[in-house]
Amino acid sequence: LKLDGELQKTLQLEADSSGYLPGRLTGTVQPLADNVPADLQLVADGFKAAASLPDTLRLNDLKLTARGDLAAGYALVGQAKLPGEGGPVDLNLEGRVDAKGARIAALRLQAAPEQRVALAGQIDWQQGLAADATLDWRDFPWRRLYPMAEPR
User: Which of 4, 16, 122, 150 has a Cα-to-Cα distance from 41 of 20 to 30 A?
Assistant: First the structure.
């Protein structure tokens, strides 16, 4: 972890992570300013959420950016590639998160222009957990990401 700058103003942040999420976090944060403004980028390669998942669900070339503050929310933009069987699948994320919840404008998986699945919705965690989402599925080859034996 490397921090540079003045705590009362803006800190430049560089952090390398290993273990569960090997990657690099860089950016700026104003930790003592109202609503904690930040502009952060996470870059990682080869991330798999659980060892038991198939390698086709490994996130390669992951880039996630968070920009904003707690009052207006942090805009999230992300992209990655999943290896998939038969070719990579693109993953794209656009959303916003704040102290009250998260809004997902789009979470898309796309294997080809005519093969995609997209999720949009919101999650509220102010009083418990509430979620609302829509799913747009267009001929997405999900078995490329989660291969399974054909039923007999």
Answer: 122
For the chain, give every domain's residue range. Answer: 2-144
Q: Which two tokens stand for residue 14?
A: 């560089």
SS3 category, 19: coil
Cβ–Cβ < 8 Å for 15, 25:
yes
| Residue spans of the chain under pLDDT 70 | 149-152
Report CA torsion sign: 69, 72, 74, 78. Answer: negative
Name the token pair of 119: 């999720």
Task: Say how far apart CA 48 and CA 82 lie, in whole Å.
Answer: 10
Instruction: For 39-82, write each residue's pLDDT tens digit.
Output: 999 999 999 999 999 999 999 999 999 999 999 999 999 999 99
* pTM exceeds cut of 0.90: no
Select from 9, 16, 54, 24 the least CA-distant residue to 146.
54
Residues 6+ apart with CB under 8 A from 97: 66, 73, 74, 76, 103
